[in-house]
Input
Amino acid sequence: MTQKCYHKSINDLYFMDYLLLRTNIMKKEQRLKNIISILKSHPSIHIKTLQDETGYSVSTLRRDLVDLENKGLIQRSFGAIRLLNQENLEYTWQYRNENNQNAKEKICKIAAHFVEDNDAIFIDSSTTSIRVLDYLDTLNGLKILTNNLKVAEKAQGLPNISAFIGGGECKPLSQSIIGIDANNYLGQFHARLAFISSSTIDEHGLHMADITQKQIKRTMINHSDIVIALLDHTKFSNHHNFVKLCNLDCLDYVVTDRPVEDRHILYALKENHVNIIYRKFFNN
Output
């Protein structure tokens, strides 16, 4: 039974191939996280020194550095590696998942109260939204629509949930499926709820670092009755990422872990009739 679920979830990849792919992705995520961690302590380092620090083979290290450079995280020049400015960057799933875990869990505990039996729910590729699944074990007949491998994997393991994931290009660092095929697949559905997140929020809307994720999130927003943005306090920053996801009037609720202190954002949310939730259930 498990093999059939995996087989359907990843669009005809064999089960063992999927397990191997997942293992390799996890290993690569850990390597990339380790390299970034070293570079944070040594913003500029020679590749030979980095190899000594990591113990990775030359070929593996070079491939990882190419990936990090393509992501805009580092710059390579004559054997030296330099860590670039950390704004407007999309990090790996594992790296993002380990940040602000307590806040994310509390936010999702609140968000789960919106879900009812037999609901269809969009869940995006954020490391916040996936935690909503932790609080849905008492409900029945739920349908989860996503473009994220980890969300689909977690959902299909729950007996009361059916998981749906579209096919397309696999983006390993974010554990998501992207592209026109994935977007068209999700566009066939309509959900009562959409749980989404973003890199930042300001008075103009939600922003993100990765343009390839934008259209799928927009499809989720446009095909839902109620749109709930799950944003911890770090998303309310003085800068915003360069990809505009949506205006504030696309949202119905913002669930966060602290009162919104930025008066410009607070005013804009109220002007756009967006309900802000942060207090209830946070005493646990």
About this structure: The chain has a mean pLDDT of 83. Residues 6 and 15 are 6 Å apart (CA to CA). DSSP finds ten helices and 15 strands in the chain. The two ends are 37 Å apart (CA to CA).
